[in-house]
Specification:
The protein is mainly β. The protein has two domains: 140 residues, no CATH class; 313 residues, YVTN repeat-like/Quinoprotein amine dehydrogenase (Methylamine Dehydrogenase, Chain H, 7 Propeller), CATH 2.130.10. It contains seven helices and 28 strands. Strand 24 and strand 25 form a beta hairpin. The longest helix is centred in the N-terminal third of the chain and has 12 residues.
Length: 470
């Protein structure tokens, strides 16, 4: 303690800070530079990441003498640009460019069995050098930039399953139907979407009223973007530059997130609180649905202004969009509050043109409780445009209809209270969130047979298919 006080009085660094710096050898000749933009986007979020069983790095290192991170202002979820620059300079002191193994930043929190130091007061964050977080640090030390780490165009399909009564999201590999990752520290996640380039995932966070951006390789929360109110579902523009979040409280809005700056760019006022929001397959329109307002609002994506509205007879639940031969939107299929069926809206005529009830399932137990006024709550259209899938919470069933004629093809039991559907990129398999079973049912869309059931978290609802960078 006396040494620390003396160092402070003399304006010197504390002994442990001097020790940390002395342990860092000089960078070898021709060593790469440490890229600031990569640090800001990929490295710094790791210090805020909540790993299961571990305290966040920032909890211990804000203001510390070793890994010196700036203190977060009260209520802040990320650092300012000025503080990020200061963090960058502090973190550089624990790195030997071009030498991950010699860099204390990478070595100190690593398990001893993997080549780490004998002891780290913050625990062993990584048990192996193949951990995605460690690989991000390794890439940065070796000179990675935002342009270089994703040079490959290869993608892997992943099913992203949110857990509406939990604080995590499960990542499923459709090739094995196994959970291959868990995204933590997002309480009451609602909607999910992914960046077209496969680098990020976006979630609406009902607990914090934010859109949370997640690094698609490390599963670390990069940023939390404050919204104008409590959100429900989410969608992304085809170019990945905008994320649209439906605000599920009065008076109703669609919040627009700029993905370059990760800030809220604007709020588009609509009639009624928004449950779901979509971008049409051609990318030209953003479509929101309000339950209390009984209104479908169609927004011009280019101008982000309302193009037209379609009033309906009941609250708007999930929607699905059929493409015309020229790629434009031809019809919207709509599930409505307290209606066990499907309404059909002609997009060009801007009105409902028909509706039909889905049939009862003989011998299937009929659920009438816990429906939340949504007897049907999930849609998907196969990529070839030939099959419409729709879930029923009443009968724990997924119905199939041929397109464009909407003739019934069959049905399959998919677990209790199915809430949402997503498809593999080729449409071969459907992944249905069974909220009552804390599981995901996997259905072969050709045979309408369940082929697997995957345990996930508490009350799984919204899900999506993402093509991520390996």
């Amino acid at each position: 303690m006396l040494e620390l006080l003396l160092a402070a009085l003399l304006g010197q660094q504390p002994p442990m800070a001097q020790t940390a710096q002395k342990e860092q050898p000089a960078a070898p000749a021709g060593a790469p530079s440490l890229d600031y933009d990569y640090y800001k986007a990929r490295v710094q979020p790791l210090f805020l990441e909540k790993r299961e069983g571990h305290a966040r790095c920032v909890t211990c290192h804000a203001g510390s003498a070793t890994l010196r991170l700036q203190r977060l202002p009260e209520g802040a979820t990320n650092w300012s640009e000025e503080d990020t620059r200061k963090n960058f300079e502090g973190v550089k002191a624990l790195v030997v460019p071009g030498s991950p193994g010699a860099s204390r930043l990478l070595r100190h929190p690593l398990s001893r069995d993997a080549g780490g130091d004998v002891f780290h007061g913050g625990g062993q964050h990584w048990t192996t050098k193949s951990d995605p977080d460690w690989k991000v640090l390794e890439a940065w030390v070796n000179g990675a930039t935002l342009a270089s780490p994703h040079a490959s165009t290869a993608r892997v399909a992943r099913i992203i399953q949110t857990n509406a009564a939990g604080d995590n999201i499960h990542v499923i590999d459709p090739a094995t139907n196994k959970v291959v990752g868990v995204i933590n520290d997002i309480e009451v996640p609602h909607g999910v979407t992914s960046a077209p380039d496969g680098t990020r995932l976006y979630f609406t966070n009902e607990a914090m009223h934010t859109v949370d951006a997640v690094d698609a390789q490390t599963y670390a929360v990069i940023a939390r973007v404050p919204l104008s109110g409590r959100p429900n579902n989410i969608a992304i523009s085809n170019d990945g530059k905008r994320v649209y979040a439906g605000i599920a409280q009065a008076p109703g809005a669609v919040d627009v997130i700029d993905t370059a700056t990760l800030t809220r760019a604007k709020s588009i006022a609509v009639k009624g609180a928004i449950h779901n929001v979509y971008v049409t397959p051609d990318g030209k329109h953003v479509v929101s649905g309000s339950i209390p307002g009984r209104m479908i609002t169609v927004i011009d994506q280019a101008t982000e202004e309302i193009a037209f509205e379609i009033p309906m007879s009941a609250g708007i639940r999930p929607m699905a969009f059929e493409k015309a031969a020229d790629g434009s939107t031809s019809r919207i299929f709509v599930q409505l509050s307290d209606y066990h069926g499907i309404a059909v809206v002609d997009f060009k005529q801007r009105k409902e043109v028909s509706r039909f009830e889905t049939p009862a399932i003989p011998g299937e137990h009929k659920h009438t409780e816990g429906l939340q006024a949504a007897p049907m709550h999930g849609f998907a259209i196969t990529p070839d445009g030939k099959l419409l899938l729709a879930t029923s919470k009443v009968y724990s069933t997924m119905y199939a209809y041929s397109l464009p004629d909407l003739k019934p093809v069959g049905h399959v039991h998919v677990g209790q209270h199915p809430e949402w559907v997503t498809l593999t990129p080729d449409g071969t398999f459907a992944y249905v969130a069974a909220a009552g079973d804390n599981a995901v049912s996997v259905v072969n869309t050709a045979t309408l047979k369940e082929v697997a059931r995957i345990p996930v978290g508490q009350v799984p609802k919204r899900n999506a298919t993402a093509l991520l960078r390996p």
